[in-house]
Design brief:
about 130 residues; Thiol Ester Dehydrase, Chain A; 6-stranded antiparallel β-sheet
Length: about 130
């Protein structure tokens, strides 16, 4: 999968007392981008009882996001396993300013059996396909 980039609107509710975007909001920005990217597969997998759950998330902050800043989230697949995959994120302004780099480990989870399952074929194709996004 090639990189996928989407813009994020900074809301007043994302700000903290210091006047910049709260660190927790970065994870919401990543979630928003992830849902935009995988919206069609998410719906189909959910119908099949397979959920994509975040097993691990980490973020390294480089500089604060301030009100009025332009925020883009770029996602790429950095690892694909049997039942999990890792997404890498770059939060930036598109003009050289990097706010943070982050990653999430996503696990395919059978909600009925309550256990991890292999990555379904349609999702595996999306993760491996250079032209899919």
């Amino acid at each position: 999968m090639r990189e996928y980039t989407t813009s994020i609107e900074v809301r007043f509710a994302d700000l903290d007392l210091y006047g910049h975007v709260n660190g927790v909001a970065y994870f919401t920005f990543m979630e928003t981008a992830r849902v935009k990217l995988f919206s069609a597969p998410f719906r189909e997998l959910t119908r099949q009882g397979v959920f994509l759950v975040v097993a691990r998330a980490e973020c390294s902050y480089a500089q604060p996001i301030l009100p009025g800043d332009s925020v883009l989230v770029t996602i790429s697949v950095s690892r694909i396993g049997g039942s999990s995959f890792e997404l890498s994120y770059r939060l930036h302004d598109g003009a050289g300013k990097e706010y943070a780099v982050a990653s999430t480990t996503m696990v395919c989870f059978d909600n009925t059996a309550k256990r991890p399952v292999p990555i379904p074929e349609q999702l595996s194709q999306l993760l491996h396909d250079e032209d899919s996004v």
